[in-house]
Design brief:
Elements (H helix, E strand, L loop, with lengths): L1 H10 L4 H9 L10 H12 L2 E2 L1 H5 L24 E3 L6 E5 L5 E2 L16 E3 L8 E2 L12 E3 L5 E4 L12 E3 L4 E2 L4 E2 L1 E3 L4 H5 L7 E3 L3 E3 L15 E3 L6 E3 L12 E3 L3 E7 L11 E3 L3 E5 L13 E3 L4 E5 L12 E3 L4 E3 L14 E3 L21 E3 L21 E3 L6 E5 L1 H4 L6 E3 L4 E5 L15 E3 L20 E3 L6 E4 L13 E3 L4 E5 L13 E3 L18 E3 L21 E3 L6 E3 L13 E3 L4 E5 L12 E3 L4 E4 L13 E3 L4 E2 L15 E3 L6 E3 L15 E3 L4 E5 L2 H6 L1 H4 L6 H16 L11 E4 L2 E4 L3 H4 L2 E3 L4 E5 L12 E3 L4 E3 L14 E3 L6 E2 L4 H5 L5 E3 L4 E5 L19 E3 L38 H6 L1
Parallel strand pairs: 3-5, 5-7, 6-8, 7-9, 8-12, 9-13, 12-14, 13-15, 15-17, 16-18, 17-19, 18-20, 19-21, 20-22, 21-23, 22-24, 23-25, 25-26, 26-27, 27-29, 28-30, 29-31, 31-32, 32-34, 33-35, 34-36, 36-37, 37-38, 38-40, 39-41, 40-42, 41-43, 42-44, 43-45, 44-46, 46-48, 47-49, 48-52, 49-53, 52-54, ...
Antiparallel strand pairs: 1-4, 2-3, 10-11, 50-51
The structure holds 2-acetamido-2-deoxy-beta-D-glucopyranose (7 copies).
One 2-acetamido-2-deoxy-beta-D-glucopyranose (NAG) binds next to β47.
Pfam families: LRR_1, LRR_8, LRRNT_2
Subcellular location: Cell membrane
Keywords: Cell membrane, Glycoprotein, Leucine-rich repeat, Membrane, Receptor, Repeat, Signal, Transmembrane, Transmembrane helix
């Protein structure tokens, strides 16, 4: 301020006399604006249109230029204009939030206002214009704000000449359509832009793509008070010297994932009030000397790489209002001294490795509204004095090692409490005053009581009228879901999870469940009896994989036109699948009715434009043919019709489904030859897993398909389908603010061996044609499917030799050719090239000669080779006679080096796991 005043005095020194004259006589008329500047302003106004949409949507305050009237002479009185009181020149132009829309360039009349000191164009829409280089001519500028105004491109170097600038803001120029940053600071880079701007106090480049590391010259800007560099894509090391800037109050560096740095010893004092490093790669420990930052109000270190214990001196920052240490690797206990931070409103410690107790001192923090302890290793219980935190609005201690008897009542006394998460500890939650709630009670919005050893339905819920989320899953509540629940939060409830209890039914509920906004309903793993409950029309997710539901599928279900996920697998439902179930919701992604007693045909109403990704009708008694309308499921990734009674030829027409990854037709009555596909047809372009086992297919193996299954040759986007499925679910669940505890791994048992393969699906490529009547030889073209992990041709009528081409399948983990009529030797190449092979079965064929040694073959048992009279050598007991031609085993390192922990991989497509990858 002082400086700019000085400049003004210097420039207008000739008018000093007038100034004194004015100050003597207030009768003097105000100085009128200069007509050339007035004209320039009117031209400026005309170069834009007023964005009516933005105005209507409330994105801008009001169009200041509306008051700029060609009839009105004195432009100094117009909205947004500031004139020099003596000379009448325009020195300030504030058009922020004025709904301006249009392009601007260096020919704009704006740049005729050469005496401008302050220019604020923030929060308009300049239509992706480049920032005009002519700004560099406004050499008097001390204040320049172009934030949130849809400028794009490189920031021009002319800005670096504006050495009077004390405030410079280019932030938030953002393309909402493409969700991307618009401005770039590359040439000039940040260093050349700012190095001469030595008067800067306020600098914001948030949301500008800054290509270079933060230049150390920044630490020369000794006047700097505020530095905002949010989401700039910064890399490299943050210059430590910046922390020492004596006037700095704000360091705001959020969301620069690759920005590294650490906190120095603060053996100096400064004025720092806000230090926000959230979501960067800052690391190291929190120095004990942090308590020298005694002005600090905001300390955001969440989602970085900090580690070590939290120094107790952190409790000496009397002004701290916001403390976020979430998602780091802090260890040790939560310092009780934090209880001295009496102004603290937010304390976020989630996802660290804190151990020990929750210090009771925390309940001294009477200003606290947000307390998050989720995902640590805290022991003990929640201090009962929690009820002292009268302003508490959010409390989450999910997923710790807390336990003991926990009383609900102190929480309910907190009248501002809306979000309460006590899940996934070892609490025995009790309700002392469970009968009468006459006192005012917390009106909760979200409540998570998963795994709290509840034995009864919590009675206090009767008085909860604003619930959006209720999670009572994994408790021991049995009996009926009480009738009174049908009146609880009927208008607000969005999410209801009652899974993993022992509920037997809804006690006298209406035919359609009552919560009119419900989106998510999970009732899995109970012992619900009777017919399928029908959720309200709003439902998006409905999962009721249970044991005991029976009866037919209610037609009412077909009214749920918003449903995305429908899963009532593992019940006892019978009757046919109503045709409407194949065409009731345009949003349906997943239809899962696995393992019921459903019979009749597969419904045939699959409609054009549906979004289904997964259809699982397996383990029922469905009959007849696959309806051709399945062709309409263009997004289908997963089709499981296994274990039914379908009688049909191979549905080669499914090969036109562009997204189909997984096709399971096993254990049905499919029959006949698999004809090779026509040459010019695209067939199963994304197929990675096909299971045709246990059918009656005959004829030769379809070598033509092996040539053409391109995604088995080369996986594109290795994790697309399961990731996608998981994301769509995840997204829904994260909106709902639900504690997540998915089990991403799966355990599979096969032939007595168990394996755990946490990411099995991402790269799993498999062919299972076992237990059919295929004959002829194994075609060489199988060797092209380089991504194959599992190959099973067992129990057919295959003849000829084992093709050497199989040795090209270098990703192969499991190979089963047993129970055929194969002849000849086992190719040596299988042992030298299949270095991942952990399961091999060639038993019960007519193979001859010496079993190759070396490689993975050292690990196979004799059962892999049994039933081949002509085979000899290890691991069989039969020795090879001296005249059986034998090559020396390849000199390989000990089998130990191949990793004894290689796991046997078998192919079991468990759909439950699929949903949870
Ligand atoms: C915005 O920019 C586009 C593309 O340059 C142009 O066609 C359009 O006329 C501009 N709109 C306004 C109001 O200047
Ligand atoms: C600058 O903008 C004006 C008015 O929109 C236009 O007529 C002129 O062609 C532009 N000049 C350049 C160099 O783009
Ligand atoms: C900064 O100022 C110095 C001296 O006034 C000048 O020589 C130099 O070119 C300027 N640098 C930039 C990037 O403007
Ligand atoms: C801070 O808290 C600790 C323990 O909680 C206490 O002993 C100490 O006196 C407090 N310090 C101040 C300055 O209040
Ligand atoms: C803070 O909490 C502790 C333990 O809960 C208590 O002894 C102490 O008196 C409290 N201090 C203040 C200032 O309330
Ligand atoms: C609840 O309170 C009301 C009024 O105070 C009383 O009439 C009623 O008996 C109480 N109910 C129970 C179960 O205590
Ligand atoms: C293959 O199966 C079909 C249908 O079951 C049958 O008609 C045909 O004779 C079989 N072909 C051979 C070669 O067994």
């Amino acid at each position: 301020m002082g400086l700019s005043l000085a400049f003004a005095c210097f420039l207008f020194i000739v008018t000093l006399f007038q100034f004194t004259a004015f100050s003597f006589s207030s009768e003097q008329p105000a100085v009128l604006c200069h007509s050339d500047e007035r004209l320039a302003l009117l031209q400026l106004k005309d170069s834009f249109i007023i964005d009516k949409q933005a105005l209507a949507a409330g994105f801008c305050a009001y169009p200041k230029v509306d008051s700029w009237d060609s009839q009105s002479v004195d432009c100094c009185s117009w909205d947004g204009i500031e004139c020099d009181k003596i000379t009448g020149v325009v020195i300030g132009l504030d058009l922020s939030s004025s709904c301006l829309y249009g392009s601007i360039n260096s020919t704009s009349s704006l740049f005729r206002l050469l005496r401008l000191q302050k220019l604020n164009l923030a929060n308009n829409h300049f239509n992706y214009s480049l920032i005009p280089y002519a700004l560099g001519n406004l050499s008097m500028l001390t204040y320049l704000n172009l934030s949130s105004s849809v400028f794009s491109g490189q920031i021009p170097s002319e800005i670096s000449k504006l050495y009077r600038l004390s405030s410079l803001d280019f932030s938030n120029n953002w393309d909402t359509n493409l969700s991307q940053r618009l401005l770039v600071l590359e040439k000039p880079d940040m260093k050349s832009l700012i190095q001469n701007l030595t008067n800067l106090k306020y600098l914001s480049l948030s949301y500008v793509v800054v290509a270079s590391p933060i230049p150390s010259v920044l630490a020369n800007l000794s006047s700097l008070t505020s530095l905002y560099l949010e989401f700039c894509g910064l890399q490299g090391m943050f210059p430590l010297a910046i922390f020492r800037l004596p006037n700095l109050e704000t360091i705001w560096l959020l969301h620069n994932l690759h920005l590294t740095g650490y906190l120095p010893e603060f053996n100096f004092s400064n004025k720092l009030k806000k230090l926000a490093l959230l979501n960067t790669s800052f690391s190291g420990e929190l120095p004990a000397s942090i308590d020298n930052l005694n002005s600090l109000e905001f300390l955001g270190l969440g989602h970085c790489n900090f580690s070590g214990s939290v120094p107790s001196t952190l409790g000496n920052l009397p002004n701290l209002k916001f403390l976020d240490l979430a998602i780091n690797s802090f260890t040790g206990s939560v310092p009780p001294t934090l209880g001295n931070l009496t102004k603290l409103g937010t304390l976020d410690l989630q996802y660290n490795y804190f151990t020990g107790f929750i210090p009771s001192e925390l309940t001294n923090l009477t200003q606290l509204t947000y307390l998050n302890l989720l995902g640590n290793m805290l022991h003990g219980s929640v201090p009962s004095s929690i009820s002292r935190l009268e302003k508490l609005n959010f409390f989450d201690c999910d997923f710790n090692r807390l336990g003991g008897i926990l009383e609900m009542d102190p929480f309910l006394e907190l009248k501002d409490l809306q979000y309460l998460f006590l899940s996934l500890n070892n609490f025995y939650l009790v309700f002392l005053d469970n009968s009468n709630a006459t006192r005012p009670q917390a009106q909760l919005v979200d409540i998570g009581l998963r795994h709290c050893h509840l034995r009864e339905f919590p009675y206090f819920l009767r008085n909860q009228h604003r619930l959006q989320l209720l999670d009572l899953s994994s408790n021991n509540i049995d009996g009926q879901i009480p009738q009174w629940l049908s009146k609880v939060s009927v208008e607000t409830l969005l999410f209801l999870d009652l899974s993993n209890n022992s509920f037997i039914g809804f006690d006298d509920f209406p035919l359609v469940l009552p919560w009119s906004k419900l989106q998510y309903l999970k009732l899995d793993s109970n012992i619900l009896r009777g017919s399928l409950p029908v959720p309200p029309l709003s439902t998006v997710f409905y999962s009721i994989s249970n044991k005991s539901l029976n009866g037919e599928i209610p037609q009412l279900l077909c009214n749920l036109s918003s449903l995305s996920i429908l899963d009532f697998s593992y019940n006892n439902m019978s009757g046919g699948i109503p045709v409407c179930l194949s065409n009731f919701s345009k949003s349906l992604l997943v239809l899962k009715v696995r393992s019921n007693q459903l019979d009749g045909p597969i419904p045939s109403g699959w409609a054009t434009g549906n979004r289904l990704k997964m259809i699982d009708l397996s383990k029922n008694k469905l009959q007849e043919k696959i309806p051709k309308s399945l062709m309409e499921c263009k997004m289908l990734e997963y089709l499981d019709l296994g274990n039914n009674q379908i009688r049909d030829a191979f549905p080669s027409w499914l090969g036109s489904l562009p997204e189909l990854n997984i096709l399971i037709l096993s254990s049905n009555a499919f029959y006949g030859r698999m004809e090779n596909p026509k040459l010019n047809l695209i067939v199963f372009p994304k197929l990675r897993i096909i299971d045709l086992s246990h059918n009656r297919f005959n004829g030769t193996l379809p070598w033509g398909y092996f040539e053409r299954w391109i995604s088995m040759k080369n996986l594109d986007g290795k994790n697309s389908p399961p990731k996608y499925m998981h994301e769509s679910l995840d997204m829904m669940i994260s909106i709902m603010h639900v504690p997540r505890d998915y089990d991403y791994s799966m355990t599979i048992t096969n032939k007595g061996m168990e394996m755990k393969y946490p990411k099995i699906i991402r790269t799993l490529v498999a062919i299972d044609f076992s237990s059919n009547r295929f004959d002829g030889e194994i075609p060489e073209s199988i060797g092209k499917l380089k991504e194959l992990h599992l190959l099973n041709f067992s129990n057919n009528n295959l003849v000829g030799g084992i093709p050497i081409a199989i040795a090209k399948l270098t990703n192969l983990e499991s190979l089963d050719l047993s129970q055929n009529k194969l002849v000849g030797r086992i190719p040596m190449e299988l042992s030298t090239q299949l270095t991942f092979l952990s399961f091999l079965n060639v038993s019960h064929n007519r193979l001859t000669g010496r079993i190759p040694g070396g490689g993975q073959f050292e690990t196979f048992q004799s059962s892999s080779f049994d039933g081949n009279l002509g085979l000899c050598g290890k691991p069989l007991l039969k020795e090879c006679s001296s005249n059986s031609r034998s090559l020396p085993p390849p000199s390989l390192t000990s089998s130990g080096e191949f990793g004894l922990d290689w796991k046997v991989v078998f192919w079991v497509m468990d759909v439950d796991s699929y949903l949870e990858w």
